Amino acid sequence: MVCGGFACSRNALCALNVVYVLVGLLLIGVAAWGKGFSIVSSIHLIGGVIAVGVFLLLIAIVGLVGAVHHHQVMLFFYMIILGLVFIFQFGVSCSCLAINRSRQKCKTLLGKDPHAKCLTCGEKMLQHLDEALKILGGVGLFFSFTEILGVWLAMRYRNQKDPRANPSAFL
Question: 66, 77, 78, 107: which sits with the fewest CB atoms below 10 Å from its CB?
Answer without folding.
Answer: 107
